């Protein structure tokens, strides 16, 4: 068995598989990595088709709960749909895999790149690759994306995937295409490449990252005619223990050059009118590491689209903000701040290699509130030193500040600190690596506590809501009076019922309510 090669490459398909999860956020689904691969292949003269399958079906398909998630059954309440709900049904966002594979093979491509943007979605990527290979075994299938970068062996150890590409496409796709077509070329020096032979799986020892001149920003349309996402930078030197950014992009911060960004902005202006209500979401983790560069980009877009509104929904590290920076971003058109807190517990943060400056955080909130700019603050629940008390304190901390609470349930990714030994992920299903799976990876708290925290975060936001229905008001009073967690469900007749949430962590609820009522 030798690595698969081809004599010519005329057509390629890039496929983003359907998403299987409890939820999906279309307006955050930018597929920026898949679009970059498409652009690179087009530059090589290869006719390319990009399928974003999660967006190709309006209504999700209800599918059986994976056996690996059976521990969640007690927490999935039929008919629950109120503002304090967890989830009720597992779904597939996108067409059936057979239909997706049919669409791919009908293009008669020589290559099929399967994008996996998170390791928890590895099963869906492999299912799609299997269906493609069954229909046309001659198609060379390559898996790439952040999910592959975390654990390429998991993907390559299947009959349906011929190659894996880890890391950044700009440094690997070009050399990979050359390797496929040149008979004497070897794969060893292609950055991030994985391949198979009669001797087993092999992985290039070359690791290279894109320089600023290689990063080509592209605007991806999301959620509407005038909404776009873009990423301008790569890499992060901060290395917080819960983050997997470095697995794909390394720990050196880099961003595209000004000229490449200006070209992308001018190209977008050619598609739209300068008077259009354009919304731009930056998916980058750390643009504040080069604040001057980011400001130049914002000003460029402002000159192209005077009515532009800016967002950074992936989260801004508030520690890199200052009051003057905050005011400048608002003046340029920031319409909402999504702030990354991590935790309000400084001890937990120290254990996660992250510092805190809560006085600065409060100053930023004050400035945003004065300017009437909404804020969402994200915190991570389930870190190593987490306790019921620390969760209660996080929730109470946010409940008394002008911000919504954005809770992120901790999930492991192969390769992050504490989970470097990837062998454990050969036995544990990737679906456990989704935040919605509420799996107790660190053992500090259990699933019951994680889901209760999730519901309480929604309760905090309900308390802050300016518009409450009669049901909302009744829910709030029931919880505050009883000290027990309640939710609303819709019966088969359409009636709304309020009842206590079965199996919730009552100790956590009591701890939170005690702090909340004290104003702490």
Protein described:
This protein has 520 residues and is α/β, with parallel strands linked by helices. Helix content is 35%, strand content 17%. The chain has 17 helices and 22 strands. The chain has a 7-stranded mixed beta sheet, with helices on both faces.
Tell me briefly what this model is:
Helix content is 35%, strand content 17%. It is an alpha/beta fold and 520 residues long.
What radius of gyration results from the CA coordinates?
A: 24 Å
Form type: globular
Distance between the termini: 65 Å
Largest sheet: 7 strands, mixed
Helix/strand-derived category reads alpha/beta
Q: Tell me the strand order in the biggest sheet.
A: 3-1-6-7-8-9-10
Enumerate the spans where pLDDT stays under 50 for 5 or more consecutive residues.
none
Mean pLDDT, to the nearest integer, reads 94
Strand content is: 15-25%
Count of beta strands: 22
Share of helix, binned: 25-40%
The number of helices is 17
């Amino acid at each position: 068995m030798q690595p698969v090669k081809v004599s010519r490459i005329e057509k390629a398909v890039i496929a983003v598989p359907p998403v299987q999860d409890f939820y999906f956020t279309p307006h955050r689904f930018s597929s920026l990595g898949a679009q970059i691969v498409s652009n690179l292949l087009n530059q090589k003269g290869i006719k390319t088709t990009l399928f974003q399958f999660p967006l190709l079906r309006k209504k999700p398909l209800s599918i059986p709960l994976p056996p690996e998630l059976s521990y969640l059954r007690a927490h999935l309440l039929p008919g629950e749909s109120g503002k304090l709900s967890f989830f009720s049904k597992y779904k597939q966002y996108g067409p059936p895999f057979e239909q997706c594979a049919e669409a791919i093979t009908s293009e008669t491509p020589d290559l099929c790149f399967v994008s996996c943007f998170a390791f928890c979605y590895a099963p869906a990527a492999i299912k799609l690759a299997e269906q493609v290979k069954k229909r046309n075994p001659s198609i060379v299938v390559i898996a790439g994306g952040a999910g592959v970068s975390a654990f390429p062996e998991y993907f390559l150890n299947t009959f349906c995937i011929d190659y894996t590409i880890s890391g950044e496409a700009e440094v690997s796709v070009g050399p990979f295409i050359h390797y496929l077509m040149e008979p004497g070329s070897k794969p060893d020096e292609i950055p991030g490449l994985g391949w198979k032979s009669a001797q087993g799986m092999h992985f290039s020892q070359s690791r290279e990252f894109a320089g600023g001149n290689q990063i080509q920003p592209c605007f991806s349309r999301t959620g509407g005619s005038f909404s776009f996402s873009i990423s301008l930078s790569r890499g992060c030197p901060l290395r917080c223990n819960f983050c997997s950014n470095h697995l794909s992009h390394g720990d050196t911060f880099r961003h595209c050059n000004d000229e490449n960004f200006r070209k992308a902005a001018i190209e977008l202006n050619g598609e739209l009118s300068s008077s259009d209500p354009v919304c731009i979401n930056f998916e980058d983790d750390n643009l504040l590491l080069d604040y001057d560069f980011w400001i130049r980009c914002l000003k460029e877009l402002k000159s192209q689209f005077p009515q532009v509104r800016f967002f950074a929904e992936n989260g801004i590290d508030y520690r890199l903000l200052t009051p003057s920076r905050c005011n400048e971003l608002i003046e340029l058109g920031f319409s909402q701040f999504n702030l990354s807190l991590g935790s309000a517990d400084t001890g937990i943060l120290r254990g996660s290699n992250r510092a805190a400056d809560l006085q600065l955080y409060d100053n930023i909130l004050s400035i945003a509130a004065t300017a009437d700019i909404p804020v969402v603050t994200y915190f991570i629940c389930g870190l190593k030193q987490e306790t019921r008390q620390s969760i209660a304190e996080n929730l109470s901390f946010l409940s008394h500040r002008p911000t919504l609470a954005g809770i992120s349930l901790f999930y492991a990714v192969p390769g992050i600190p504490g989970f470097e030994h990837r062998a454990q992920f050969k036995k544990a299903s990737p679906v456990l690596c989704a935040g919605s799976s509420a799996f107790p990876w660190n053992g500090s708290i259990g699933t019951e506590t994680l889901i209760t925290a999730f519901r309480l975060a929604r309760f905090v936001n309900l308390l802050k809501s300016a518009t409450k229905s009669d049901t909302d008001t009744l829910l709030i009073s029931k919880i505050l009076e009883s000290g027990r967690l309640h939710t609303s469900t819709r019966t088969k007749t359409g009636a709304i019922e309020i009842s206590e949430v079965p199996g919730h962590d009552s100790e956590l609820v009591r701890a939170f309510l005690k702090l909340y009522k004290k104003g702490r």
